Amino acid sequence: MRLISLLGLPFVAALASAAVPFKGCQHKVKESIYGIPRGWSRHTSAPKHHMLELKIALPQPKFPELEQHLWEVSDPSHSRYGAHLSKEETDALMAPHPESLDIVNEWLASYGLAEESLFRSSANDWVTIRVPVSLAEEMLDTTYSVYKHAETGESIVRTTSYSLPEILHDHVDLIQPTTMFARFKAFKSTLHWTNQVQAPVLSTSSGTITGPAGNQVDASCNSSITISCLKQLYNSVAYNTSATSGNKMGLTAYLDQYANNMDLQQFFQLENPSAYGSNYTFVSVNGGLNNQTYAAAGVEANLDTQFGFGLTWPTPGTFYSTAGEPPFDPDVFTATDTNEPYSYWLDYVLSQPSLPQTISTSYGDDEQTVPFTYATRVCAGMAALGARGVSILFSSGDSGVGDGNPDPATQMCYSNDGLNVTKFLPAFPASCPYVTAVGATVNIPETAVSFSGGGFSNYFVRPAYQEVAVSEYLTKLAPGTYEGLYAPLTSIQAYPDVSAQGVNFLVVYQGQTTPVDGTSCSSPTFASFVSMLNDARLTAFKSPLGFLNPFLYSAGYSALNDITMGHNPGCGTEGFNATTGWDPVSGFGTPNFEKLLALVLSLP
């Protein structure tokens, strides 16, 4: 370690390569998994010429300080509430120690990787390199293989273990793609196609029914959801957003999901004629495309833009299209093999000096498919966005507590820790404590939908803001409930935080109106009302809300419609029940905009 500190001195820098003999240094396992995850099998050895795009995460020694800033600027009772950090301030708090930069640079240089061949994140906490499999295997003392997924047939290049020179272990948090078998290319965005999730309640009046705010709502909203329905249900009909407050609404797209502009204009004509002719700002991340052919239209991207921008118009919208993992054919030459898309999107947005105040994402995967180290780093990026004043919302998932199947004989929830035992399968990034996870409801009166993702993380410790609400819920469970299906429930992060309608959203897709279900409907819906609240605060010369959860768990819950019916089965169980107060099916419930508006405008 004394040698490492010397690397910062100019007169010995030239000696670094010789002084730190990486190639002859003893390698030690940095990360490994118990075996090939369920559903995957080894197909063949990875071609030596196949190019890997490796992302190297350097430690963030000042992250606890960043996290403390996040708690303070997000807590309405704190004197620093709303004093969000700048890009430069968050960069400084995410930056690695200079010693880590130096020794990793020297390690890379020892393999011929000079500075001009490296790509660095804005905070220098990530380094990306492009190397052939042959060099990656030498650097990481490992062997890459091609693995195939039995259900989808997709192929990826991965390994089950990698090593680094022992001197590097304290200076590198992780390197991927190595041990991550998350199906980010193949997993469905959280979207359901069935229209029979739960039968709509028939209206008992001629044209209207009573909504959760006590107001009258069109009876048709019990069978199909439109922009008008959501504004009626959630009590925002009287509010008009501004185009000049400085407020912006952001939506993300991955996995080659393209928002079709012809479909968007047709949707506006049908559901918000005032918005017809308006557009949004398209941002390409990591080569993300904007394919406008009808054949390439994506239901998920159409859903997000049509409802997200339709509800918030004329607030300016930003649509991020992030290129994901390219298909890999093990039988032909494929140019490159990249990581899942969240890290690329985070690299991009955290490098920008100005960001939308509200961003919704409708994608996720089983938490256990993402290595703990990687999940932790992605989650830390979400914390940085919150500290900068961005409200980040994620769909909570569409499989209840795991696979959506209550039958013990046919359930498919198994651990990938080598024990192959039945386990609930929480979703990520919904389980990250620095995002707001949104579950789904249906009908009027509202009921939690059976597919609404919810439960408890196996990775993240419960934050202080959740302690009272979640502990109260746990007292309602019988002793020993679901023992062994999670880590101890008394100490781990719970989700979702809130919910919104998620069934029978009328989306225009390839020129046709199509009903869509899923928490993919719920997240942009709740985010749209958050964007309206940010619009009101900015118009009143106040700060944006930023990270929502400390506010929601301390005061905001009083302005939400509590959902007390429904449950989310899965993994051979009936899952959890919705009940009074917070629950792991619907969170604290759905928005009552007028109540929320009064509340957020009363905050400093």
Automatic annotation (TrEMBL):
Co-factor binding comment: Binds 1 Ca(2+) ion per subunit.
Cofactors named for this entry: Ca(2+)
Keywords: Calcium, Glycoprotein, Hydrolase, Metal-binding, Protease, Secreted, Serine protease, Signal, Virulence, Zymogen
One GO cellular component term: extracellular region
Catalytic residues (positions): E300, D304, S520
Reactions catalysed according to its record: Release of an N-terminal tripeptide from a polypeptide
GO biological process terms held by the UniProt record: proteolysis
Signal sequence residues: 1-18
Domain Peptidase S53: 224-603
Record Pfam families: Pro-kuma_activ
Location(s) in or outside the cell: Secreted, Extracellular space
Gene3D superfamilies to which the protein is assigned, alphabetical: Peptidase S8/S53 domain
Main subcellular location of this protein, as a coarse class: secreted
Protein name per the record: tripeptidyl-peptidase II
Organism: Suillus fuscotomentosus
Organism taxonomic ancestry: Eukaryota, Fungi, Dikarya, Basidiomycota, Agaricomycotina
